Amino acid sequence: MIPKISFRNVSKSFPLKGGDFLALDRVDLDIADREFVTVVGPSGCGKSTLMSMAAGLTEPGTGDILLDGAPVAGPGPDRGVIFQQYALFPWLSVRKNVEFGLKLMNLPPDERKRRAEHAIELVGLSDFADALPKTLSGGMKQRCAIARAYAVDPQVLLMDEPFGALDALTRVQLQDQLLDTWSRERRTVMFITHDVDEAVYLANRVVVMAARPGRIHRVIDVDLPYPRTEEVRLSPEFSRIRNEVWHSVYHQAPAA
Amino acid sequence: MTAATVTEPSASPRRRRPRPGRTVVLNVAAVIAGLAVWTGLSVSGITGLTGPVEVVRRGAELIADGTLVTDVLASLRRVFTGFVLGTVLAIPVGFLMGWYATARALIEPYVQFFRTIPPLAIIPLAILLMGIGETPKVFVIFLAAFLSSVVSTFQGVLDVDRTLINAARVLGASDRTIFMKVVVPASTPFIIVGMRIGLGAAWGTLVAAELIAAQEGLGYRMQQAQLYYDLPTIFVGLISIGVLGLVMDRLLLLAERRLTGWQERR
């Protein structure tokens, strides 16, 4: 089966004073259709660059990034992106934000309304559909951003530390809500985070990256059943995987 | 997904907001005190300084014989023509400069250079090149308005949050859509600030522009009054200019509130 996304021997360097900085070194990674993959690693390991290249916002240096076997060329609505800073259009209401991508698809107005309504309901923001972003809490803003990404019906969701700016409690709630949304309408998810618990709780597979140069250190399978619940979060099996991921993030051998 | 909470737009803890009624009372008291000081000065000391009563009487005369209305209309027409032309040109030029590095590199030297020359210093040149009709007056006002709003528009475009542009791109927006639907609304607050500064500059240039052989206008009237040692008329002119400027600024402020109320205030 063709993987949904594949990174084939992808390297990327950025020019710096006094030589190039190698952000990513020969990364190979396949993500299967409807798989939930989290990418975790120390800062500077290139995890955001990896996602940005999959989104088509950053050009790969060398190597190929394939979507359904075809090379990625620029951004497109088949890949929804969720940013840490929410990136909602502050002058548009929740509904108008969600409709932004739908308008670009030239859907008939009825269909557009229906799909926006559905996406807003999916993230539980129906009561705030006409509110401006400035009146929403951080968690609600991010849910609105998730609805906006879901509305255009992308096959892939790329999430760049989406809950990084939220407090611990809200973060746990949003993790559950994301899994709930994802289990109802499954997409391929590539989720960047620096939070080991979050990485393990959400994923089918955790990709651990290393820095200087940015590269894949280990890939750890998470054999925990969905739906993930508090019970799962507190289970010994969860702790075991969490410890394993923790070790490979924080006790990496220096690069050869 | 349930359990939703809204954070109320919280009242800023740093500034205590005075009650509106109290503010108005204090404003009125300050104006009355000012008038009292003015009256006091004119009665007791400074030779030739007219008091408020005389100025009001003169104002009534000028209104009654239609002079004030004609002057105000003439001045407003000049300010508006210059201001509208200036901002209408400044907005696209500012967008060009903010959006295309090439345009910026070509235009910016001129903008920065002419910005350092007070528009009033252009007047001698404008008279020689454009004669003594309406053109040089409007031109100088236009220049003042244009130069102040162009910089702020272009700064606004430069400051548009990159993530908003990326968010639009990943939803499939073309460059054109990004410009119309993201860059334009995101820079509106800057444009309006630029317009307010531009209006101030236009208004500030008016009186001097009317020194150029005008037949009517507030600045011209004050010039004439100066020749005849007619202080009340000068005061009427000054007060009219102040009041009109204040009204126009408030109107733009109102527009600003309506158009950019979505901004998060920090």
UniProtKB/TrEMBL annotation, chain A:
Listed PROSITE patterns: ABC_TRANSPORTER_2
Superkingdom assignment: Bacteria
ABC transporter domain residues: 5-236
MF term (GO), any: ATP hydrolysis activity
InterPro entries associated with the record: AAA+_ATPase, ABC_transporter-like_ATP-bd, ABC_transporter_ATP-bind, P-loop_NTPase
Keyword RNA-binding carried by entry: no
Keywords, sorted A to Z: ATP-binding, Nucleotide-binding, Transport
Listed name of the protein: NitT/TauT family transport system ATP-binding protein
Automatic annotation (TrEMBL), chain B:
Localization: Cell membrane
Occurrences of domain ABC transmembrane type-1 (ranges): 72-252
Principal subcellular localisation of the protein: membrane
Record keywords: Cell membrane, Membrane, Transmembrane, Transmembrane helix, Transport
GO biological process: alkanesulfonate transmembrane transport
Pfam families: BPD_transp_1
GO CC terms, sorted: plasma membrane
Membrane-crossing segments per the record: 24-46, 79-101, 113-132, 138-158, 227-248
UniProt KW Transmembrane helix keyword: yes
InterPro entries referenced in this protein's UniProt entry, alphabetically: MetI-like, MetI-like_sf
Top-level taxonomic group: Bacteria
Membrane topology: Multi-pass membrane protein
Protein family membership: Belongs to the binding-protein-dependent transport system permease family.
Protein name per the record: NitT/TauT family transport system permease protein
Organism of origin: Nonomuraea wenchangensis
